[in-house]
Structures are given as C-alpha cells and as structure tokens.
Write a structure and sequence with these properties.
Layout (H helix, E strand, L loop, with lengths): L1 E5 L4 H11 L5 E6 L2 H10 L4 E6 L11 H4 L9 E4 L14 H22 L10 E8 L13 H21 L4 E8 L5 H6 L9 H14 L8 E4 L5
Parallel strand pairs: 1-2, 1-4, 2-3, 4-5, 5-6, 6-7
Helix pairs in contact: 1-7, 4-5
C-alpha cells in the first residue's frame, strides 16, 4: 500500500510511520518540515520503504514542494493520515494574530491545499482511499474545554466539519474520509503545551490504534467523527 503520513517527525506520526513501515508491502511517505528527524526515522526503518518528504505546512507556498517531495515517490495514494498540527496554549488576550493564523493554516487551510494536490492520485485502487484526519477532543462539541486552547480547539473543530463535508463530496470517487478526535497523548507537543502534565496514553499505543483504523476503518465508516479517549478530555 502507498501511505502518506504528515507530522511524521515526532510523537504519534513518528511511531505510526514505523508501524506502517514494518510491513514490507507498504511504501511510506513521511512528511514533516524537520529534515533531521525524518532522516532519523528512515535510519530506524532500515530495510523498509520509507521516503522522507520535507514539507512545511506553515509556509503559504508549501504546494511547490508536494510534487518533488511527495508525489515523486508514489503514483497512487491508498491511505493518507493528516496528523500534522500546531498548538499554542495561551489565554485569548495574549494570543497574537500570527499565532491564530498559523494554527488555522497548519490545522485547516493546509489540509485543503494538500488534498487538492493529492486528489488526482486517490481512489484509483480496488479498495477506497482512506483519508484519516487527526483532530482533538478539544474540537468535539460538548466535550470538556480547557483555558488557553480556544484557537486550537476551534481549528480542530473545523477539521471535523471538513471531514463530514469531504466524505459527501468524495463518496462517488472511491474515497472515504473519517476523523479521529484524540484525547491527551504524552507527545512532545502535549509536553510543550502542558508542562508537568502526564497522560497514560503513549504515542505508540495511539499510533497502533490509528494504524489499525486506517487499514480497516473505511470498511465500516465514512464521514464519521470518532472520539478516541478514555475520559472527557
């Protein structure tokens, strides 16, 4: 299978890339702006087919890198895991316009642009292409909200609604789109946003769940917003 994972240089994305790469039948395109971490990932997956793709979703001109860095390695897309994300934990009065814009660019706008570039390569196999958008419980209506995450949660809610809309738009294109709303996971991003806080969920455990869902979820779901958390957060 041809698999693209964004946000693959650390945390859940890093572990997910390694899990997919453990199957010799898979080609994994690991996307991140961090070249050094992608090179480390490739070394750890020695013997597997892993293609590092250096793409910065915060760059408004990132689409220029897609053909060279991503589509030069594969001619069809079987699974896309949109895992890249940006998070700033600040009260509303302290947030800058640049911080809000960057979160929405990385978490929402870049998803539009990335999918526009990849769409001609999707839905070409016997099985549906499965797009898995990685969102947050903070973006789930009715879930517990936390101070300092207003812009982040709003951007993740937008990604969930985008999922529902695209599932309808793509239903005749052999493409399924689902969204996983993740609870707290002990990633680098979590530690940076919540110093001193701990989560019992490890990146590897969550990556294993996402891997299994990406492989089989399209058989059961399309356009679904699925909470993945033991508790409310």
């Amino acid at each position: 299978m041809n698999i693209i994972i964004t946000g693959a240089s650390r945390g859940i994305g890093y572990e997910l890339a390694k899990l997919f790469a453990s199957d010799a039948k898979n080609k994994v395109v690991a996307v991140s702006r961090n070249r050094l971490k992608l090179e480390q990932l490739k070394r750890e997956c020695r013997g597997a087919t892993v293609y590092p793709a250096v793409v910065d979703f915060s760059d408004k001109d990132f689409k220029r890198d897609i053909t060279l860095q991503v589509l030069s390695h594969i001619n069809t897309v079987d699974i896309l895991v949109n895992n890249a994300g940006a998070l700033v934990n600040k009260p509303l009065e302290d947030l800058t316009a640049a911080e809000v814009e960057n979160m929405f660019r990385v978490n929402v706008i870049s998803q539009f642009e990335f999918l526009q570039a990849l769409l001609p390569y999707m839905g070409k196999g016997k099985l549906p292409t499965h797009i898995v958008n990685i969102s947050s419980m903070g973006g789930l209506q009715g879930s517990m909200k936390f101070p300092g995450l207003s812009a982040y949660s709003a951007s993740k809610a937008a990604l969930a609604t985008l999922t529902e809309s695209l599932a309808e738009e793509f239903k005749d294109k052999n493409i399924s789109v689902n969204c996983l709303m993740l609870g707290a996971v002990q990633t680098e991003m979590f530690e940076e946003a919540f110093p001193g806080e701990k989560s019992e969920m490890t990146p590897l455990l969550m990556a294993a769940y996402i891997r299994d869902f990406a492989l089989t979820g399209a058989n059961f779901f399309n356009g679904k917003i699925i909470p993945v958390a033991k508790g409310t957060p």
